[in-house]
Design a protein that fits this description.
Length: 101
């Protein structure tokens, strides 16, 4: 029984000290352990869309980035295609040389 009374008294003391601490910080009406919610967090919830208005400079930058990505993609694709064709020509030359003998 004595342990229960000590625990209850400690809980009461802890409650008083935390309320005094929050009052000293000017947060008398707020719970310290409550999570902080910001207005912008609501935009990232499932099903909500935030429409960002882009200005001309941002549009220009994005178009340039996309153009660079397209160029890089096509240069890699062309390199692979030409490498395959060159390999096929070399194989054909080797085959034709052996077939000729």
């Amino acid at each position: 029984m004595d342990t229960r009374e000590n625990n209850k008294q400690q809980e009461i003391d802890d409650g008083k000290s935390s309320s005094l601490l929050s009052e000293s910080k000017g947060q008398s009406g707020k719970d310290e352990d409550a999570p902080y919610h910001h207005h912008r967090d609501q935009q990232h919830q499932v099903g909500r869309k935030h429409h960002h208005h882009r200005d001309d400079s941002e549009t220009f930058k994005n178009e340039n980035l996309k153009a660079q990505q397209r160029k890089k993609f096509w240069s890699k694709t062309l390199f692979v295609l030409l490498s395959i064709i060159a390999f096929a020509v070399v194989l054909f030359a080797v085959w034709a040389y052996r077939f000729d003998e």
